[in-house]
Each structure stands twice: as structure tokens, then as C-alpha cells.
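Q: Given only this backbone (162 positions), what sequence would you predict?
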């Protein structure tokens, strides 16, 4: 069995072909709660699904504080895991503050009984009934803008006009 730690992750490798280690003690630097992040024994990887992903692993302090020689494998904390044969399991440290805030947000959101209602004015808008004189006044007495655009497009495609 090989165990190593990188940041908030703890990796447990069991290379034994047949031996399962139940309650295997794993040392770690950071105290708190750990959960399975990746499990090579999961069904999606062709494994047997023996490692529980819904299990929280809580650390316990080891040795005398301030005396590293009394710690477990030179680590001030430890937690126990199940290590099936020929597997690798990666554990991550749970951010308990973020988890508590998320749980609080979910409970306050579940109390809401009715959806938010938005007041929208859905009255139809009347179309403009401008007269020919009004159109000429706004366009400066010339043709309307749609005809101008059409003429411009036709003129710009002419080879003689640059």
C-alpha cells in the first residue's frame, strides 16, 4: 500500500492482488472531513464498486501536539479507509464552510412556496398612421429610406460607378 498527499488530496494505492485493507489508517496534514474524489474500483472503470462514495471520513489527531515524532507516519492527523486490492482511491478535503453555506442556501430556497411573479405590460402597441406629408417632412421631401437604400445597393454594384 502506498499513500501520499498533495495539497487537499490524499491518494491510497493498494497493489496487493488479493488483500483488502478495511479500516486502513491513513495519515494526513490537514484536519477535517475527507470524501472520495476518484475511485478506480468504481463500476464505470470496470471495478466492483466496493468503496462508498457517500461516506465521510473524519480525521482524528495523532500524537502529542508540537512533537512530530509522536505523530502517525509524521502526520498530525489520520483517518481510516477501505482499500480494496488493485485499486487507487483519491480523497479530497471537504471545505466545511462552503458546504454549510450551500446547505443554508438550499434550505432557504426550499421554503419558497410560490415562484416570483413579474408584472409585464402586454397591451398591444398601435402602429403609426403617418400621412404622406409626415413622411416627406421627416425625409426632407425626398423618397423614403428603404428606396434610397435599394438604389444605393444597385448603384454600388454597377461596374462603371466607383
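A: Predicted residues:
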Amino acid at each position: 500500500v502506498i499513500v501520499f498527499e498533495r495539497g487537499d488530496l490524499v491518494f491510497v494505492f493498494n497493489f496487493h492482488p488479493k488483500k483488502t485493507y478495511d479500516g486502513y489508517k491513513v495519515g494526513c496534514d490537514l484536519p477535517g472531513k475527507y470524501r472520495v474524489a476518484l475511485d478506480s474500483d468504481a463500476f464505470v472503470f470496470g471495478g466492483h464498486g466496493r468503496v462508498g462514495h457517500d461516506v465521510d471520513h473524519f480525521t482524528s489527531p495523532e500524537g502529542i501536539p508540537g512533537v512530530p515524532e509522536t505523530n502517525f507516519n509524521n502526520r498530525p492527523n489520520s483517518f481510516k479507509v477501505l482499500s480494496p486490492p488493485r485499486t487507487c482511491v483519491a480523497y479530497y478535503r471537504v471545505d466545511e464552510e462552503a458546504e454549510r453555506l450551500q446547505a443554508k442556501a438550499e434550505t432557504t430556497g426550499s421554503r419558497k412556496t410560490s415562484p416570483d411573479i413579474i408584472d409585464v405590460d402586454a397591451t398591444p402597441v398601435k402602429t403609426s398612421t403617418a400621412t404622406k406629408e409626415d413622411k416627406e417632412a421627416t425625409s426632407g421631401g425626398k423618397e423614403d429610406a428603404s428606396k434610397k437604400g435599394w438604389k444605393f445597393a444597385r448603384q454600388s454594384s454597377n461596374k462603371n460607378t466607383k
